[in-house]
Amino acid sequence: MRNPIHKRIERFSTWQHLAFSLCICERMLPNFQLFCDVAYSKEDKRSENAKVLQNILNLVWEYLTIKGAKINFENQLQKLEEIIPDTNEFDFYGVFPAEDACKAVAELLHSIIAGEHLEQSILVSQISISTIISYLETLEDREFNEQELKALPEIEQELDLQWWVYRELKECDKRDIELLLELKSQLRESGISNIGLKFNQ
C-alpha cells in the first residue's frame, strides 16, 4: 500500500527520522506487551521480555533528548534479538504483531547503528501498516484490495497518526527536546497499539 508520507520525510534530518520511527515503535509496543502477558507464565523468565523491549525504546528516547548520552546500541540490538518470539512456537495470532513490533524496533536500532535513516524510517512505517493489514485480513478471513484498505478506519487512524507525528516534527528547525518529550508522553498515555490493543500495566 502506497503511503505519500514516505516522500515527505525525505527532507527530514537524522533526529527527525529517528523520532518518527520511535513514535511508530511506541505504538506497536502494547502488541508485544500483551503477547508476553498471554504467552509466558510469571515463573518464566521470558515474561520479562516486554520490559526489555520497553527499556530499549527508553534508551532511544534518552539518546534523542539527553545531550551526550552514551548508549551501546549494538548491545541493545543483541538483547532485542534474544527476545524476538518464534512464530512456530505459538498457536495464537498475537505472536505475529509481537514479532512485527520487534522487527520495527530492530530497524530503528539498525538506523542508529548504520546511519541509514530515511530507508529505515520508511521500513518502520511499512511494518506498522502491514501489521494492521494482516490483523484485519485475519479477522475477516480474506484479502483486501488497495481501495478497500484505504477505506478501513484502522488504516485511516494509523495514517493519521503518522501524519500527525510528521507535522509535529517538520515544524522544528532544530532538535526540540520539549516536543520529543511531549510526543513520548502522549503516545504512552494513550497506550493504544496500532491494532487497537491496550496493555494495562
TrEMBL record:
InterPro entries from the UniProt entry = DUF416, YP001051499.1-like_dom_sf
Q: Write down a Pfam family by its short name.
A: DUF416
From what superkingdom does this record's organism come? Bacteria
Gene3D superfamilies referenced in this protein's UniProt entry, alphabetically:
YP_001051499.1 domain like
Name this protein carries in UniProt: Protein of uncharacterized function (DUF416)
